[in-house]
Amino acid sequence: MRAVVVTPGQKGSGRVEDIPTPERAAEQALVEVIDVGVCGTDLEILHGLYGEAPEGDDYLVIGHENFGRVVEAPNDGGDLSVGDYVVSIVRRPDPVPCPQCAAGEFDMCSNGLYTERGIKGLHGFMAQYYTEVPDYIVKLPGSLAGIGVLIEPLTVVEKGVLQTEAIQNRMTWDPKEAVVTGAGPIGLMATLLLRAKGYEVFTLDLVERDSHKARIVEACGAEYVKGDEEPLAQLAERVKGIDLIVEATAVPQVVFDAIDAIGPNGVVCLTGVSAGARTLSVPADKLNLEMVLENKVVFGTVNANRRYFEAAVNDLTKFEELWPGLCCRIITRRVPVDDFEQALKPRPGIDIKSTVSFSG
Question: Which residues are CB-neighbours of 264 under 8 A, at least 6 positions away?
Fold first, then answer.
């Protein structure tokens, strides 16, 4: 079967190869891949920054944002049937296991022995087929067939928002205003989710007001804020007491600006990892004073367990009901597997989410 593989740690080793089709065990499903989204993690693996091959192999099949169809169901039947649309969870619990993994919260693994498909110790989904046990497979309704590849990035936001709600059980909380910094795939997923939950949402980016991203923001009833015209600090003056900021740029200056801009008792949820070794001067004393006196919370979210995947299926379905066809506009390019490198070269002002397609 055709697959996109890398030699972990070797920059520029990404290539399409014919590898053996996985043999299905009785308890597994065989899934035919339809679409695999490309994100910054894949780019970093392709640049040799990290990535770990499965034991016994010298290559890693990349790709974790997956969507496919069951072509062979587990022998015991169960909840999976041939023809079901599915996504698979990325992370697997460590074998020890730690207390979090033992409780099914393997996205919060505390000893680092977890594995991740397409990233760490397990082959990913950028291949024609994969096998998986039902515990890590989540079904989708047919109505999401065209946008199912958005489930995995949405899970990052689902986890962030649900954990924000858990954190805010510390107090009486009636949130109204939220800011999203960044209008990439994660930022747009956050915008849609928060709008669906009834927040007044302000999504900040640098793209032009008539850009594709800005139009999607406005189409769901959020306000697009052009960051070089109204910086985050200025927006915070206009929107007094911001309840939640979802930071989706991973730009260090924006991260610290978000901590400064969040209102009293507010939460800043970080969804990205800042790359590079650039130093940044920040008013640490001011930030510390505000965080203490105003009860601010800053935390990060990445990866997700089953409950966040199931929440994403429910909410993506809701998005389609509220704004028919809007999510489809986030997927701006599908390229065939043999041209996978094109998915790694976004077209400025056009592309939001690119996928590698195996559907013909």
Answer: 241, 294, 295, 296
